[in-house]
Amino acid sequence: MNRLARTSAAIIAAATILVGCAGGAPIATFPPVSLGPGPISAATTETRHLIEVALSAQGLQAGPPATQFRPAESASLAAAPRLLLQVLLPDDPDHGYVTVYELSDATTAEAAAREQAAYVGSGIGRVQFPPDSQFVIRTVGATVIFFSWSAANSSDERTPKIASALETVGTGVPIPL
Length: 177
Fold this sequence. Notes:
By secondary structure, the protein is of the alpha+beta class. It has helices at residues 3-22, 42-57, 75-78, 106-121, 123-126, 159-166, and strands spanning 62-63, 82-87, 97-102, 134-140, 143-149, 171-172. The N and C termini lie far apart (65 Å).
């Protein structure tokens, strides 16, 4: 084989490998079902109502999110159906997301909440959030509430009030340090 033939063969082999590695069609992944705007369960409806009442006591209100959002999550919460709310923050319209996850029962919700707390308290979880992030993880029956915020990244002075309001709902799950 002459030099030109070897070079051509090498180029064709390299191109074949690159095409193979790059893949053809992307691999389809399917996120867990998000609850809403259609019918949602009684458990999630009740948790949403409790959140709205708690926020109202702080002079805040929540509604459907303006954009898609998904927080960093542990495996159990990543697989759970969810309802996403966004607290209206006129000075910071890109934040204020509160996620309500629905699990099969209260015991499963408690385990998932503790898993999320361990996740956000771990090195792997911490890198998913700004360094000064604070977290609220609460359980209400078969649901888990998750909210995170960062003072350095929140331009609306009302953001800490979201955490204060949520801390009055359900049962808190501590974040291990």
